[in-house]
Amino acid sequence: MPDYRATRLPLGIKLGILLSFTLAWAFSGWSGIQTALSLFLSNPIAGLYNYVSRIFSADIDLIGLIINPPADIVLFLTGLFSSNMFAWIITAGIAACIAKGLRRGLTASIIVYVIDLLIWILIGILSGEDLLAMFSGDSLLVSIGTILGGLAGVLIGGSLFGLASGPSEGIL
Fold it and tell me: Which one has a higher pLDDT value, 111 or 65?
């Protein structure tokens, strides 16, 4: 039987990257996918940016939720566990399960998150989006809160699913 221990981490990272963009649309009920596809037909780079930016949309604004929490606990939990948060938890969980083990699972999950963030920024630059506007003024806290909210989902999913998958087989 072949030894798959050395390929688990790269396989988890690759599958996590592929799933991350699709799961964000799936958990949001595919709302807005028609806009992304029609934009892709007229301007492929702008359509791709619209598709990729869904996973970094502002419905996980962690800083905004902490600074200005809703009075009702149900609204707070609804804001905390949004569709993108679930997408990040499941994406990180699948990458962690494939990588197997807590340390390797967290490593795979964080690498998936960083690569997705870099892809989002790179496609934003190529499409001509005004990324500076997202990281200045009133949008700064929302953008940082969204990035931190996604990172929180990655850490939750990577650690829970990494622990659930059992210990690593001993290679890295």
Answer: 111
Per the structure block, which two tokens stand in for 111?
């690498």
Tokens 């806290």 locate to 141
Is 124 inside a domain boundary?
A: yes
Residue 171's identity, in one-letter code, is I
The answer to the question of residue 98 being in a domain is yes
Query: Would you say residue 7 lies in a domain?
Result: no
Q: Which residues of 114-151 are buried (b: 16+ CB within 10 A; e: fewer)?
A: eebeebbeebbeebebeeeebeeeeeeebbbbbbebbb
> How far is 165 from 172, CA to CA, in rounded Å?
16
Which residue range forms the structural domain that includes residue 27?
18-164
- Total number of domains constituting the chain: 1
128 falls within a domain: yes
Main-chain phi, psi angles of 89, to 5 degrees:
-65, -45
In tens, the pLDDT along 16-57 reads 999 988 888 888 777 778 888 888 888 889 888 888 888 887
Quick one: DSSP state of residue 59? Answer: G
